[in-house]
Amino acid sequence: MHSTRHHLRLLVSALVVICFAGGLQADEPAGDDAILAPGAKPVLLQEHGAGEGPVWHGMAGLLTSGDGHINRRDLQGRQSVFMKDAGSNGLMFDGRCGLIICEPVRRLVSRRDAQGQVTVLTERYEGQRYNQPNDLTMDSKGRIYFSDPRYGDRSNMEMRDNNGREIEGVYRIDRDGKVTRIITHEVDRPNGLVVTADDKYLFVADNNNNTVGGARKLWRFDLRADGTVDPASQKLIHDWKTTRGPDGMKLDVRGRLYVAAGLNKPNPPHETAEPATAGVYVFSPEGKLLKFIPIPRDEVTNVAFGGSDRKTLYVTAGGSLWSIAVTTPGFVRNVSQ
Fold it and tell me: Which candidate, 130, 50, 120, places its Cα nearest to that of 89?
């Protein structure tokens, strides 16, 4: 116990000083365009505690959401609970010494500072409680974008438009705290999302996985300078059709998009898996499927780049954590002050 408290004190002290850094076919890139390191295969790192939200910090290691907590895997591979009973899903460092947390249990988005103090960023929009804040991304101005789907019981949903239609939207939180809904009904059930390095595009996962015939699609929108999207620009990048759709996603420094999706076993009557589709889908900046990386565990939920060179791709799947060596570092957002 003393050793655990000692390590936690060292971690908190470090964070005070140093800000968070924040059956398929596809063309197989080769040479300088290769995606995986030579001979690389997925490696199982742990069986539990990594359900969602992987995010890397150069001193803390990898944080994940799992078993109701935010869990930590340190640089030596040791596992511990970083934030107990967090009720979290998506996690993101904001480049200003803060960890941004999607909290679907409390139906809000919060920020934990380097001293461990948690502040609610938003819990209602126009008086209505959010559904289940799920995942998030950020642009170069430090504006936060988060998705707000609803999975499971819908009886206590408050988020509706003026006609009473349920809203599963995407929202932007400005640096001054103002919140704006930027996607209302354009996406069936938004999940993972990412803003490109140049702030030009917003990719959104559309994953209505518990509805027969629901969307399982990856969309791209033009992102305007004011942080809104152009609805007319909506472009379909990929359709998973009847299998598990896209979930969390990240970019590498070349602008390639790594998307968690698919199933190895069918989930009737909602989802098929013939052939097995669970893994990481890598797309070019233009949206062409370049590679499929199979993961031998169902519910592949999210990915994150980590390691000292950002060339380790971490994958969360069914509570387990996997890693695979890649050739290109993950993209790290630099936020203007």
Answer: 50
Say if 335 falls within a structural domain: no
Whether the pTM exceeds 0.90: the reply is: yes
pLDDT at 97: 87
Number of domains in the chain: 1
Cα(79)–Cα(73) distance, rounded to whole angstroms?
Answer: 5
pLDDT at 10: 44
What's the domain range around 44?
2-27+40-325
Looking at the domain assignment, is residue 246 inside a domain? yes
Separation CA 214–CA 242 (nearest Å): 8
Q: What is the CATH number of the domain that holds 77?
A: 2.120.10.30
What pLDDT is attached to residue 155? 95
- Do 330 and 305 touch, CB atoms closer than 8 A? yes
Residue with tokens 């707000």: 148
Q: What is the pLDDT of residue 9?
A: 46
Within a domain: 293: yes
Task: Please give the Cα distance from 48 to 89 (Å, whole number).
Answer: 15
**Enclosing H/E stretch for 49:** strand 43-50
Residues of the chain with pLDDT under 70: 1-32, 336-337
- Round to whole Å and give the CA distance between 56 and 40: 20
* Cα 309 to chain centroid, rounded: 20
**Residue 222 within any structural domain of the chain:** yes
145/147 Cα distance (integer angstroms):
7
Cα–Cα distance between 192 and 146 in angstroms, integer? Answer: 8
pLDDT score at 33: 78
Query: What pLDDT, on a 0 to 100 scale, did the predictor assign at position 315?
Result: 99
The predicted structure's pLDDT at residue 334: 81
